[in-house]
Design goal:
globular, alpha+beta, Glutaredoxin, 118 residues, 4-stranded mixed sheet
Length: 118
């Protein structure tokens, strides 16, 4: 069975709740505290592709102060967004789960439920 990776921020209530759920569902789970151990730029691109979202903006938290610190706007390109997350990992939406060849952002939790049960 392939490993499931969970990008986690323990300071986030939603992330902690989702982690508890995923731990009940998955045996081979790798938890990555992405603030302490940020994904590489290459890993960010892989996450983006697996999320099947329209733009990289959907995988970030624009309300964070790092959004403006990185010089991002709503018009920023996908590459600019991924570069900003590479520099400021706190921008990454949480949690993100990679399972098999797909990924889901755990907001709402139903997206993770669907991912794990497909």
């Amino acid at each position: 069975m392939p490993k499931t990776r969970f990008y986690h921020n323990p300071s986030s209530l939603k992330s902690r709740e989702a982690l508890a759920f995923v731990k009940e569902q998955v045996n081979n789970l790798e938890v990555v505290e992405y603030i302490k151990n940020p994904p590489s730029r290459e890993e960010l691109e892989d996450i983006y592709k697996k999320l099947s979202i329209l733009t990289a903006h959907e995988m970030i938290r624009p309300q964070e102060k790092e959004f403006s610190m990185a010089g991002l706007t709503t018009e920023s390109s996908d590459n600019e967004v991924l570069d900003a997350v590479d520099k400021f990992p706190n921008l990454l939406e949480r949690p993100i789960v990679l399972h098999k060849k797909r990924a889901a952002i755990g907001r709402p939790l139903d997206l993770i439920v669907s991912l794990l049960h497909d």
